[in-house]
Amino acid sequence: MKVRVRCFAAVREIVGVSELVVELPEGSTLDQLIHQLQSQFPKLQALTGSLLFSVNREYAFADTKLAAGDEVAFIPPVSGGTDVWNY
Amino acid sequence: MKVRVRCFAAVREIVGVSELVVELPEGSTLDQLIHQLQSQFPKLQALTGSLLFSVNREYAFADTKLAAGDEVAFIPPVSGGTDVWNY
Amino acid sequence: MFGITDQPLLLEPLVTTVKRSSSGAVATFLGVVREQTRGRQVRHLEYEAYPEMAIPKMREIADEIRRKWEVDEIAIVHRIGRLQIGEASVAIAVSAPHRREALAACAYAIDRLKEIVPIWKKEVWTDGEEWVRPGIPQPR
Amino acid sequence: MFGITDQPLLLEPLVTTVKRSSSGAVATFLGVVREQTRGRQVRHLEYEAYPEMAIPKMREIADEIRRKWEVDEIAIVHRIGRLQIGEASVAIAVSAPHRREALAACAYAIDRLKEIVPIWKKEVWTDGEEWVRPGIPQPR
């Protein structure tokens, strides 16, 4: 099955594109997708501990089962302390 | 001695002008001025319990001593409950 | 910037006035004339101020804020005269390096304004009118 | 009104959008690009959003607010693209019958926006750059 992966900010810069279509075995979980992309883009590993993920535009846990056509997004991490926005 | 009395809102409507010059004995207190104006404008009596006063643009107690040229203001009362402003 | 005006209030100039290069947040508050007040239908409002005392009192509020929070600038402008439903009677803007201080200071400013700034409004309803003034300040 | 835009943010249209005849108060919040962040000199910022998720999340924040406070309307607009010092990155406006609800809801909206709305910024300093994103939402 195919899923879409949307990439933003630091993830987009590592992957080099803002959207990927990834082929996965039927019944794969979000976790399996993450591992597959990590082996393809090793620099993602440094981010993974602090990444969040969404499936179909809702935050999702790593054990979420994916379906064909799902839209997954990597939500890049916080960096740099507690009050990291300007305001 | 002469003092200026500024009148606002309900007080202005009772007194009929926005400013009065009042002749008082030397050493008069704010309280004496209030009584003098109440006898001149009896309708003020209904308001007095809830009036505040300022002398020279600062809130003042009734026992404040007045001096020639002081600017006194009658600060009309709250009416109508606790959330009386629109916002 | 502290003022009393008979002109319509606009936020944008206030924001420009308070913004500094250190400001990460600007919080604003507008008081607006409501259609209903305590169950009665408002036709319009008339605001009146004691400007020579009101402006120093606004400044006093700003001084209190600076003692409580790290803020950049504070602006308070109150409109006087006849106001229709939907028009703003008061506009407050506070800038600060961070959002919490800007928001807290803005909330404080409007509370204190009601308490110590000598401004009155006459509510003119479809069935009568009355002068209204909020808050009982403690003389000092 | 919820939006993502690459145009400068203005408060006045937001205020007009949220004001109802029942509104006695409008509170607004602007997030502004500061000159300094964590001691480093900012040259400019670049904001990026996941708009298809960000707008529903803004709507979700508005729903949360309506469950907590009596408010009239809520508007949230975030700017994306390159922003200079002094420019606003986010604008929030909340109208309500009374001031406390408008102010509390506005403060809540900006806190929650940082927590759940997928928007990132790259800080470009005079000596480097870094992507930054606030808050760790709890997946549900």
Map the helices and strands.
The complex is a heterotetramer, with 2 copies of chain A (87 residues) and 2 copies of chain C (140 residues).
Chain A: E1 2-7, H1 9-15, E2 19-23, H2 30-40, H3 44-48, E3 52-55, E4 58-59, E5 71-75
Parallel strand pairs in A: 1-5
Antiparallel strand pairs in A: 1-2, 3-4, 3-5
Chain C: E1 2-5, H1 11-18, E2 25-32, E3 36-37, E4 40-49, H2 51-68, E5 73-79, E6 81-83, E7 88-96, H3 99-116, E8 119-125, E9 128-132
Parallel strand pairs in C: 1-5
Antiparallel strand pairs in C: 2-7, 3-4, 4-6, 4-8, 5-7, 8-9
Helix pairs in contact in C: 2-3
Which short descriptors sum up this protein?
heterotetramer, A: 87 residues, alpha+beta, Ubiquitin-like (UB roll), 5-stranded mixed sheet, 3 helices, 5 strands, 25% strand, globular, disordered C terminus, C: 140 residues, Aldehyde Oxidoreductase, domain 3, 4-stranded mixed sheet, 9 strands, elongated
Q: Segments of chain C where pLDDT lies below 50 for 5+ residues?
A: 134-140
SSE ordering of chain A = EHEHHEEE
Assign an overall shape of chain C.
elongated
Q: Using only CA atoms, what is the Rg of chain A?
A: 13 Å
Number of strands of chain C: 9
Spatial gap, N to C terminus of chain C: 25 Å
Can you tell me the CATH architecture of chain C? Alpha-Beta Complex
Q: Strand tally of chain A, please?
A: 5
- CATH class of chain A, anyone? Alpha Beta
Going by helix content, strand content and strand pairing, the class of chain C is alpha+beta
Q: What oligomeric assembly is this protein in?
A: heterotetramer
Percent of residues of chain A in beta strands?
25-35%
Tell me, rounded to a whole number, the average pLDDT of chain C: 90
Specify the helix fraction band of chain A: 25-40%
What does the model show?
The complex is a heterotetramer, with 2 copies of chain A (87 residues) and 2 copies of chain C (140 residues). With 87 residues, chain A is of the alpha+beta class. Chain A has one domain: Roll (Ubiquitin-like (UB roll)). Helix content of chain A is 26%, strand content 25%. Chain A has a 5-stranded mixed sheet with strand order 2-1-5-3-4. In chain A, strand 3 (52-55) and strand 4 form a beta hairpin. Mean pLDDT of chain A is 86; it is low at 78-87. Chain C has 140 residues and is α+β, with helices and mostly antiparallel strands. Chain C has one domain (2-130): Molybdopterin biosynthesis MoaE subunit (Aldehyde Oxidoreductase, domain 3). In chain C, the strands form 2 sheets. In chain C, strands 3, 4, 6, 8 and 9 form a 5-stranded antiparallel sheet that branches. Chain C has a 4-stranded mixed sheet with strand order 1-5-7-2, with helices on both faces. In chain C, helix 2 runs antiparallel to helix 3 (99-116). Chain C is elongated and about 50 Å long. The interface between B and C is medium-sized, with 27 and 35 residues. Strand 2 (25-32) of chain C pairs antiparallel with strand 2 (25-32) of chain D, so a sheet runs across the interface.
